[in-house]
Specification:
By secondary structure, this protein is α/β, with parallel strands linked by helices. The strands form 3 sheets. A 6-stranded mixed beta sheet has the order 1-2-13-12-10-11, sandwiched between helices. Strands 6-5-7-8-9 form a 5-stranded parallel beta sheet, sandwiched between helices. Strand 8, helix 11 and strand 9 form a beta-alpha-beta unit. Helix 12 crosses helix 13 and helix 15 packs parallel to helix 21. The N and C termini lie far apart (53 Å). The model has no long low-confidence stretch (mean pLDDT 97). Bound molecules: 6-O-phosphono-beta-D-fructofuranose (F6P). The site of 6-O-phosphono-beta-D-fructofuranose has 14 residues, from loops. 6-O-phosphono-beta-D-fructofuranose binds next to loops. InterPro entries: G6P_Isomerase, G6P_Isomerase_C, Phosphoglucose_isomerase_CS, SIS_dom_sf, SIS_PGI_1, SIS_PGI_2. Pfam families: PGI. It is found in: Cytoplasm.
Length: 550
């Protein structure tokens, strides 16, 4: 999409208007905004699917939101969104369509890339995944020695790991508890070691997940896993077929590795790695939760896709959340964004979002290659509450940084919690509600004094408040709700990339390190190339080699 004729973001009248509005807003406190509008707590809320989204504790007024929507209109967010859904090649630096939304489209949808409807192919792979998952889950698929598969080890990295690993944790209460499912990503041999050391190779299935099937970490771990298997089984290459399947776009490389392409589950170059866990990359998850739950999850994604595509700007939740992030980055100098789930099952959720958001929007040139002179993607971070409360919340409450935060919670605990533990849910959720309240409204010096606090301690015990948060509340954490949440964040990231005029779907920034590692590796084992290193790296490599006796 050519954006050369587009006015630079910070030279648009809409940006200027927002800047002026920000000055007028000054230090207006949330206390004031709530006092001015007694219905703010119910009025500043939206719903999408099962998600109740409260944005009342943001440093915005109706006027702010109107100006932000005008910025979205001026920067062509809706046009780019429609182009994405139509299958146009909006990932210009890689000349690719961006169609993760096709992965959850219904069977009768028609979405074309280069004149070909991709939806039948999507469903053919989903059906093949379902048939395979059923065979593994029922015990019909056996290993080389005829034993039932009891362990599934997913080997992948980045988008080929974070999504299924996160979703497996989130949906643990929906998994077949008889199956052991583990995820290996790190090229540190310790990762594979810990994953397989107590497993019986005769009962273990390796799922090798790699879009390109060239990623060095994954191919190295997959090769080591194959050696472990063949040694453990005391078998030849023919044992691989019953213990290895591949998830990839690259049939040639899969065959080269020795995996029968009949056991390959395909996806396509229009699925970005970080947008791929609802494709074949979700196979380990599907084996764990079963095809029906997986399809429920896809329906959840689709529900939010349709909302994003069709809801008017005033009601469009991903649009709103994306614009709020633009607002804080540009006009409050917010550098980071915290995602704080109040569910233990969401323990890997923020790590997943880190790749989704930071690999997508960690860019500093616009889509035409010009340097941007506005903030782009934030540092995304966070861990589940209430653990964070006893670690870093101090800085959010009383530090010097502006950190917008998302709080995600559920009205009901997951279904299979031990009965004695269900009562703890109220305490968890009391913390959930208390934190956003404290962050928004704080505690004034007078309130502190009224508690009889000694004057010299008053500044220390004062909370200035005015920290912006979004609260996302759902009834229960189900496969559908997980799909809804992920699609919500995917489209939020999309909105921000569109406003900032960056390509959210490439990731050139990860390449240089890979190239340099390839050059350094032989030097570590005594090969050539050390003389080309800078003096710092050369000295570090030398120290490493000395330690390893080389
Ligand atoms: O699935 P692959 O091709 O092994 O790539 C893994 C990951 O590597 C990256 O390309 C970054 O290095 C991610 O975008 C991707 O998710």
């Amino acid at each position: 999409m050519n954006t050369r004729s587009r006015t630079r973001l910070n030279q648009t009248p809409e940006w200027t208007a927002l800047g002026k509005h920000r000055e007028q807003l000054g230090t207006t406190h949330l206390r004031q905004l709530f006092a001015d509008d007694p219905r703010r707590g119910t009025g500043f809320t939206l719903r999408v699917g099962d998600l109740h989204v409260d944005y009342s504790k943001h440093l915005v007024t109706d006027e702010t939101l109107r100006l932000l929507r005008e910025l979205a209109a001026a920067t062509g967010v809706a046009e780019l969104r429609d182009a994405m859904f139509r299958g146009e090649k909006i990932n210009t630096t890689e000349d690719r369509a961006v169609l993760h939304t096709a992965l959850r489209a219904p069977r009768d949808a028609v979405i074309e890339v280069d004149g070909e409807n991709v939806v039948p192919g999507v469903h053919a792979v989903l059906d093949k995944m379902a048939a395979f998952s059923d065979r593994v889950r029922s015990g019909e698929w056996t290993g080389h020695t005829g034993r039932r598969i009891k362990n599934v080890v997913n080997i992948g990295i980045g988008g080929s790991d974070l999504g299924p690993a996160m979703a497996y944790e989130v949906l643990r209460s929906f998994t077949d508890r008889e199956l052991t499912v583990r995820f290996v990503s790190n090229v540190d041999g310790a990762d594979l070691h810990e994953a397989v050391r107590d497993l019986d190779p005769a009962e273990t299935l390796f799922v090798i997940a790699s879009k390109t099937f060239t990623t060095i970490e994954t191919i190295t771990n997959a090769t080591s896993a194959r050696n472990w298997l063949l040694t453990g089984l005391n078998a030849g290459q023919d044992a691989v077929a019953k213990h290895f399947v591949a998830l990839s776009t690259n049939a040639g490389k899969v065959a080269e590795f020795g995996i029968d392409t009949a056991n390959m589950f395909e996806f396509w170059d229009w699925v970005g790695g970080r947008y791929s866990y609802d494709s074949a990359i979700g196979l380990s998850l599907m084996i764990a939760i079963g095809p029906d739950r997986f399809r429920e999850m896809l329906d959840g994604f689709h529900l939010v896709d349709e909302h994003f595509r069709t809801a008017p700007a005033e009601e469009n939740v991903p649009l709103l959340l994306g614009l709020l992030g633009v607002w804080y980055g540009a006009f409050f100098d917010a550098q980071s964004h915290a995602v704080l789930p109040y569910s233990h099952y969401l323990s890997k959720f923020t790590a997943y979002l880190q790749q989704l958001d930071m690999e997508s929007n960690g860019k500093s040139v616009d889509r035409d290659g010009n340097p941007v002179d506005w903030q782009t993607g934030p540092v995304v971070w966070g861990t589940p509450g209430t653990n964070g409360q006893h670690a870093y919340y101090q800085l959010i409450h009383q530090g010097t940084k502006v950190i917008p935060a998302d709080f995600i919670g559920f009205a009901e605990p997951v279904a299979d919690l031990l009965p004695g533990l269900v009562a703890q849910h109220d305490l968890l959720m009391a913390n959930f509600f208390a934190q956003t309240q404290a962050l928004a409204f704080g505690k004034t010096p007078d309130e502190v004094r009224a508690e009889g606090v000694a004057e010299e301690l008053v500044p220390h015990k004062t909370f200035k408040g005015n920290h912006p948060t979004t609260t996302i509340l759902a009834d229960r954490l189900t496969p559908s709700v997980l799909g809804q949440l992920i699609a919500l964040y995917e489209h939020k990231v999309f909105v921000q990339g569109a406003v900032w005029n960056i390509d959210s779907f490439d990731q050139w920034g990860v390449e240089l390190g890979k190239v340099l590692a390839k050059k350094i590796e032989p030097v570590l084992t005594g090969g050539q190339g050390g003389e080309q290193l800078d003096s710092s790296t050369a000295a570090l490599v030398e120290a490493y080699r000395a330690r390893r006796g080389r």
